[in-house]
Here is the input.
Amino acid sequence: MLRYFIILVSFLLTPIIGSAQTDAEKLGMALDYFQSHKYHEALLMFEDLDKHYQLNPRFLAYMGVCYYYAWNYDKATAYLDSVMEKMDVYSPHERAVYYFADAESHFYLQQYEKAIPLYEKMLKVCFKDEEPATLYKLGFSYLFQDQWQEASDYFKKALSGFKKMLPMETARITQLQHMINGLNPLVPPSKEDWLRFDSLWMTMNGPKMILNRLPEMPPMKEIILPQQATIAENTPPTTPTEKMVKDTISQPAVHDIDLSDIYKDLVIPDSL
Here is the structure.
């Protein structure tokens, strides 16, 4: 009888011991799947473990990434948002993965105001060749909120990054050029743009503008000829009604008035 009792107890305890071993192995397999980018398989095991254990923040972040790749953006943001503040202890590029998955999930949920700070954090820790795509998404995050200036600025940065680091992405480069051109009518010129335009415009139209803004010309006044100037002997005297006048414009450089007719009767001595 005692022997049967021992066998029965052993039989009842075996599933408990075996279950603990299975869960440990399951966690190892989940991590292997995750590292191999087999996110669906990893998620199935993580979900089962999440029902029975209090997983640490890193494993919860893994689950968030898996949900992102499963297109379940609501759950992805729920898991990643809950642990994002605890991710600072990990390497920069590992954090970039979490920032990216969380930002993308918010983006596709059309929660652009939440996606923007995550994309910006990713820019600080991602690899250089990942920056153009991140800038590209930042541009669209602002575009979909009708913030034209910010969208244009990020598209320009993304375009520069793609041309410099990823020139083979010709389709994306062409798209960005079209996006920037399309935004130009919606974006007010910057201060620097205004100054450049104003300088160019003044160079081309300045004299005309100044003449158009001159006040009405004052009446011509009688003058006394300078002592150095004498009337030529062969010049007939003027009648009492004729008057010598001079130009009264103070800035002759900005006009093209010909004064030769006014002073044609003057002779300037050689000694001057």
